[in-house]
Amino acid sequence: MRSIDRWVGIPICFAVSPFRWLADRIRGARKTAPDTSRTLFIELSEMGSAVIVDPAMRKLQLEGNAEIYFAIFNKNYKSLEILKTVKEENVFKMNADNFISLVLDVFRFMVWCRKKKIATVIDLELFSRFTGLLSFFSGARTRIGFTNFHDEGLYRGHIVNRPVRYNPHVHIGINFVSLVNKALDKFDNPYATEPVHLHELQLARAIVPPEAITNINAKIKQLYPAWQSEKIVLLNANASDMLPQRRWPQENFAMVAANLLEQQNDIIIVATGSPAEKEYVEEVVKKVNHSKCINSSGFFSFDELVPLYTVSTCMLTNDSGPAHFASVTALKVFVLFGPETPHLYLPLGGNAEPFYLGLPCSPCVSAANHRKTTCVTRPCITGIQPLSVLERLHMFIKENK
Predict the structure, then answer these.
(1) In this prediction, what percent of the chain has a pLDDT beyond 70?
(2) Rounded to whole angstroms, how far apart are CA atoms 64 and 54?
(3) Is 159:176 a contact under the CB 8 Å cutoff?
(4) Distance between first and last Cα of the chain
(5) Looking at the structure, do residues 154 and 191 belong to the same domain, yes or no?
(6) Domain of 25?
(7) Among 137, 293, 342, 357, which residue's Cβ finds the most Cβ atoms within 10 Å?
(8) Cis, bond preceding 168 (omega within 30 deg of 0)
(9) In 3-state terms, what secondary structure has residue 181?
(10) Could you tell me if 44 and 191 lie in one domain?
(11) What's the number of CA atoms in the CB half-sphere (13 Å) around residue 81?
């Protein structure tokens, strides 16, 4: 996908840019304020970002009286369902299983946008040429997205007609709100000069019905029949294959889990994961070698994760989607950061606490390199000592008895 985006995306963006300029001149796209009444957000590949952008979308609904639409890869749609800010009928789910299906869905997307009469597009992706082209093909008069402005590289033509300079020194949530402020016509040039206040980053809490809690308690009992309402500590030991450098070693997770169970007799540890992650998670559980550490990979559906987080005490996780999914609940989440930084990607909600060494090389992945790194030794993540993590979790559990 990166190769296609680079070798196909750059020349297409270059070729399309003059047509964009001409079309915008004819339509007078720069002469009137953006029409936010029917606004499409595009975020295809990042499940966590679909949660982080929620405060920005709610701001646009409130201040711009906007009907919100969203385009996302079909496999990531569940992350958008958590807070139900966007109606399902307003979501375009793109199939990226193979190149042919992707191309066909581009044409389907163009038709869908015109049926929905999309007036403004906000591209949330960090310099993806593909999503930039999608914003142009949508037919929307106003197209808002990140630009490098005076920064080097990251060329994707001049498709966005109301650019916002991406600031790599502030949290991505602030950058997302700045895109919305641009749609609300709160600043003129690419620099996001409109302040973003703390209350604008407040994340809504998911509504969990009582029957969902009852169902989760029953499933935990099914998973571990000896459960007598002990506190539940969650382990999320895996991370996306797109950036495996984020994974804390399996033996470190196992060491923390084993010692927690030795020190705390009123907890059980549930190791979570998708069905595809079952074998990886099982390696951690085997290393713990304790009856109260259970592999639940594939046991809970995505829709059951938020209720599971609601009844649990805390979670230890790699920097990955579940950290953000849990942020819509009151669950305390301890997040292990390595090649990325909590200064930009710590989950919103106020309940996340990072473990981060902040080495001189960190973060080594960013928008500027399309999150690519060739580091093999990964001292930024492997250097986080299990003892320090164990002590912090032990203290938290003890304080919350």
Answers:
(1) 100
(2) 15
(3) no
(4) 47
(5) yes
(6) 2-201
(7) 293
(8) no
(9) helix
(10) yes
(11) 15
**At 52, which CATH number?**
3.40.50.2000
Q: State how far the Cα of 324 lies from the Cα of 122, in Å rounded to an integer.
A: 21
Q: Which value, in Å, is the radius of gyration of the alpha carbons in the chain?
A: 22
In this prediction the pTM is: 0.92
Residue where a domain terminates, one of 175, 201, 227: 201
pLDDT exceeds 90 at position 68: yes
Question: Which pLDDT tens digit goes with each residue over 176-209?
Answer: 999 999 999 999 999 999 999 999 999 999 999 9
* 123: nearest Cα among 143, 140, 137: 143
CA-CA distance, 73 to 37, in Å (whole number)? 24
At a CB cut-off of 8 Å and minimum separation 6, what does 318 contact?
236, 237, 238, 239, 246, 247, 248, 335, 336
Other beta carbons less than 10 A from residue 1's beta carbon: 14
Residues 289, 232 within the same domain: yes
Please check whether residues 216 and 264 belong to one and the same domain. Answer: yes
In 257-392, the DSSP E strands lie at 267-271, 293-295, 314-318, 332-336, 352-355
Q: How far apart are CA 300 and CA 320, in angstroms?
A: 18
Can you point out the beta strands (E) in 61-136?
A: 67-73, 91-94, 120-123
Cα 57 to Cα 161: distance, rounded to the nearest angstrom:
20
Last residue in a domain, options 201, 236, 256: 201
Q: Are residues 142 and 162 in the same domain?
A: yes
- Looking at the structure of the chain, the number of domains it has is 2
- Per residue in 268-304, pLDDT (tens digit) is 999 999 999 999 999 999 999 999 999 999 999 999 9
My answer on whether 186 and 229 are in the same domain is no
Contact between residue 165 and residue 49 where contact means Cβ atoms under 8 Å apart: no
Residues 48 and 185 in one domain: yes
Contact 139, 116 (CB under 8 A): no
